[in-house]
C-alpha cells in the first residue's frame, strides 16, 4: 500500500525518500560549538530510524549568535569539519542532510533552562552582549540588547553567507535560515522587537529588509541545484505583533529570492503570548501559506501520530511534516509509522564504512 507520508519528495536536485523530517533541536551539548560523539549518535540514529530528512539543530553563525554557551556553531572551518563525518554517515543511511543556521539576537546569552534556570547577565558565565534591532529586551530578566548599527548589520550578513559556505563544505544538501522563535531575523520582522526608525524598521517592507538581504546573499552562494528552506514563526500570537498576513507577504518575497520551502512554526517573540498548543496547532499556517503563496510548506508542532501526519499531507495542508519531541523520544518513529500504515519500505541496512568518509 502506498501512502503520501512515504512518497518521495523532490526539491531541485534533492529527493527525500519520505515526507518525515527531523525538526531542528538544540542539543546544548558542545563546549565550543564543535559537534562531537553526541551529535554522531543523536543525528545518526535518526537517520537510521528512517526519516526522509534530518535537520541539524540551530548552528550559530557567530559566537555571539549562540543562545547558550553550549550551542552548536558554524562560525569556524573546524566546526564545519567536525560536522562532515556526521553528514557523510547520515547519507549512507539514505536520509537527506540539512542544517539550520541561526543568530539568537536578543535571546542570546541565556542558559538553557534545564541547566539551572534563569537567563544570565553578559558578565556572568558564558554570557555576551546580545544584539537586536532595538534596545528592547525579550523579558525584563534578559539583558538589554545592543541596537544594531550599520557595522553590526554588515557583519551579520557576512556571517550568514560564511556559514552557508561552511554548511556546503560539510556536505549538507539542504540549508535552512532561522527566521523564527524570536531570534535575530524574527526580531527584525516583528514590530514588538523592532522599533527602528531607519530603513530596517517601521513599515513591513523595512522590517523584512535584513532577512531578505540575507536570504538573497545566501541564495547567491548556496548552489542552484540545492534547496533553501526558511523557518518562520507565522504569528507572534500577540495582537499588534507579527501575524499570518505578514507571513504571507514575507513568504512571497522569499519565494521570489529563490527560497524553496517555508517551514511553518510560530511564537517565541514574547513571553506574554498565549499559545493554543494542541495536536497540529500550527498546521493551519502551513496550509494558508501553501495555498496563498503557492509554495511547498512543512508543518510542525505536536504531530505525533502516523495517521495524523498522513491526514495533513493527504488534505494538502503541507508537503511534509517535521517532528521534534516525538522523534526525540523515538528515533525509529518513521519505521513504526511505516508498519502502522502497512507500507513496505526498503531500508539501507548495510553500512559501507568507506562511504562514511567525507
Ligand atoms: C529540545 C528542543 C530543541 C529545539 N531546538 C530548535 C532549534 O534549534 N531550532 C528550531 O527552529 N526549533 C527548535 N525547536 C523547536 C522544534 O523544532 C519544534 O518546532 C517544536 O518542538 C514543535 O514540534 P514538536 O511538537 O514535534 O516537538 C526545539 C525543540 C526542542 C524540544
From TrEMBL:
NADH:flavin oxidoreductase/NADH oxidase N-terminal domain boundaries: 4-340
Gene3D superfamilies given in the database record: Aldolase class I (3.20.20.70)
Coiled-coil zones: none
GO molecular function list: FMN binding; NADP binding; NADPH dehydrogenase activity
Alphabetic keyword roster: Flavoprotein, FMN, NADP, Oxidoreductase
CDD domains named among the record's database cross-references: OYE_YqiM_FMN (cd02932)
Protein's UniProt keywords contain NADP: yes
Cofactor: FMN
Name of the protein in its database record: NADH:flavin oxidoreductase/NADH oxidase
Organism of origin: Acidithiobacillus ferrooxidans
